[in-house]
């Protein structure tokens, strides 16, 4: 069949192969939403657009809608039917907090993540979800839980972490909502490498007293909460078997997700969760002492 294309065949074949290779190199992202105590209809499009704008990701969206939500227009179209096959993806990004997922989907996520076949990204209220799912709590490290659920980690001004035992202190909350500073604690991790030591983040819920197993954690950045008078983990990673999890409690609403720092952090965190590396440079609009917002 190629003989009929004449003398332009090598160029055409080269272009076709190059385009196929380029597409294959992109990281395949599955963004899960459909239920949340936050406005997922306004935030999922921001996450999707942010990732796709880098040119490094393809993003499919799947929505596990409640019955009362099924007749409402979705935030993104077209969607992938829920639950999809995880074998088609390199990383799951959760913007979900709602009813349990099917056991088969949960088991597949557990095994694939544990084997290092897929990565996981947890954004804001996604850490509220699935308190009764033991393996999920291991995956996310810490989440929005009662003080009797598990340990909590706080960090002092010098960056030293202190583990508070289960039952001591307060349950999870956001005792401060407003503008705050993100302080990078691990300057050599691929996600945070090159970031300013401190950068301004716009009005957001500053989660405090996150609770959980708090195992295999690497706290990359913190923020000082006026409500708890200590630094709370804001960017961290978790090792789950051979798998990589990126977790940020930042991103309460569209305004908070408009932060150039938030978007760049999620972009880098998603690449790292999928590949273990970060090839992206920090954007020129990354915040320093002033908030940097994108439209």
3D structure, described in words:
The protein is α/β, with parallel strands linked by helices. The protein has one domain: 3-Layer(aba) Sandwich (Rossmann fold). Helices cover 24% and strands 27% of the residues. A 9-stranded mixed beta sheet has the order 2-1-3-4-11-10-9-7-8, sandwiched between helices. It has a two-stranded antiparallel sheet with strand order 5-6. Strand 1, helix 2 and strand 2 form a beta-alpha-beta unit. The radius of gyration is 20 Å and the shape is globular. The termini are far apart.
Please provide the ordered H/E string of secondary-structure elements. HEHEEHEHEEEEEEEHH
Distance between the termini: 49 Å
Quick one: CATH class? Alpha Beta
* Largest sheet properties: 9 strands, mixed
Evaluate the radius of gyration.
20 Å
Number of helices: 6
Structural class: alpha/beta
Q: State the CATH superfamily name.
A: Class I glutamine amidotransferase (GATase) domain
Unreliable stretches (pLDDT < 50, length at least 5) are 1-23
Tell me which CATH architecture applies here.
3-Layer(aba) Sandwich
Give the amount of beta strand, in percent.
Answer: 25-35%
Overall pLDDT metric: 92
Strand order of the largest sheet: 2-1-3-4-11-10-9-7-8
List keywords for this structure.
single chain; nine-stranded mixed sheet; Rossmann fold; 295 residues; 6 helices; alpha/beta
What's the topology here?
Elements: H1 9-25, E1 27-33, H2 40-53, E2 57-63, E3 91-94, H3 103-114, E4 119-123, H4 134-140, E5 152-155, E6 161-164, E7 173-184, E8 198-208, E9 217-225, E10 230-240, E11 243-248, H5 254-257, H6 260-275
Parallel strand pairs: 1-2, 1-3, 3-4, 4-11
Antiparallel strand pairs: 5-6, 7-8, 7-9, 9-10, 10-11
